Amino acid sequence: MKIKDITKYLEEIAPLNYQESYDNSGLIVGNPEQEINSVLISLDCTEAVVEEAISKNCGLIISHHPIVFSGLKKLTGRNYVERTVIKAIKNDIAIYAIHTNLDNIQGGVSSMMADKLGLENQAILRPKEGLLKKLVVYVPRTHVDALRASLFEAGAGQIGDYDQCSYNTAGYGTFRPLSGANPTIGQIGEQERVEETKIEVIFPVQQERKILVAMFASHPYEEVAYHIINLENTHSYVGSGAIGNLAEPMSEENFLALLKDRFDLKVIRHTTTLSKEINRVALCGGAGGFLLNDAIRSGADIFITADYKYHEFFDAEGKILIADIGHFESEQFTQELLFEIIRKKFANFAVLLTEIDTNPIKYYS
């Protein structure tokens, strides 16, 4: 199949507009039209991973972390980033990154962490704003049902766990066709009054083109009266981190032991225990320290993440237990997640997991 067949599917699940502003998810190296026979999945893309892709005849590497975060001005091989890109290009290996856009979906990286701990009633810890718009369109009442159905089919009208949501207001519209018009209703030069319905539906921003295409195809008018409004509403299924509850409360010591076991950890860096039970758990894969206040506001007893600096541990202020389990360790199940996502859609396509440990941090014991 072609690279674009896989990347298009991945971007339906984790759209690129879900990534953070600093990120560089998407196809980094390669031609989307390139034919490939297999794909290699890795948390990081390094020279060794490219060598592995070459040896296993994988035309595409899908990594969680982008090998290129900011623009490359030169390709001279002076560092591992440039050498990795050069090696991939020389050997016709494409590189695709699915980073914070995968972090920011429910069922993504943080959700995978929550699943490993058996958390129930999971939700996004900090839902994102700016991902929703509202379409307002006016249509003759004779065509309301057909237009509404088309909008729903195109992806409009989903709010949380509900779909086919719309608000409809009855009224009437007036218009006068001018010379050159080809009106569905009315005569040239004569004002027309038509019983109409105003339909309002919410939709995710990445669906805008598809929804407008559906609207124009189903609307009877030559000129469609509509407008689109940017919303400040948060998207309940998109955002940073995850939160959930344990089936039964546990002591801090027993929960930390469970965490160590489920994530196969050599060490956990944590704040002073608070002599209280752990019931509600907040977590974020990778560097999630920016979510500490969200975790506290959510009533979490512990916040699990990575990359905490010394002075940042003081920010817990006795309100919550912070557990830093390591960046790689917090995201290690991402490879498994991507494997499952791709195999679900492309059951007969060769999907391989890297055999290389790309964690740059080692522990001496």
From TrEMBL:
Highest taxon of the source? Bacteria
Which Gene3D superfamilies does UniProt cross-reference here?
Answer: 3.30.70.120, NIF3 (NGG1p interacting factor 3)-like
The UniProt keywords, alphabetically, are: Metal-binding
What molecular function terms (GO) are annotated for this protein?
metal ion binding
Q: Which InterPro entries match?
A: DUF34/NIF3, DUF34/NIF3_bac, DUF34/NIF3_sf, N-reg_PII/ATP_PRibTrfase_C
Write out the residues that bind a divalent metal cation 2.
H64
Is the keyword Metal-binding in the record?
A: yes
Query: So where does a divalent metal cation 1 get bound?
Result: H65, D103, H327, E331
User: Which Gene Ontology cellular-component terms appear in the entry?
Assistant: cytoplasm
Say if the entry is tagged with keyword Metal-binding: yes
Query: What assembly does the database describe for this protein?
Result: Homohexamer.
- UniProt similarity note: Belongs to the GTP cyclohydrolase I type 2/NIF3 family.
Protein name listed in UniProt: GTP cyclohydrolase 1 type 2 homolog
Protein source organism: Sphingobacterium zhuxiongii
Q: What is the lineage of its organism?
A: Bacteria, Pseudomonadati, Bacteroidota, Sphingobacteriia, Sphingobacteriales
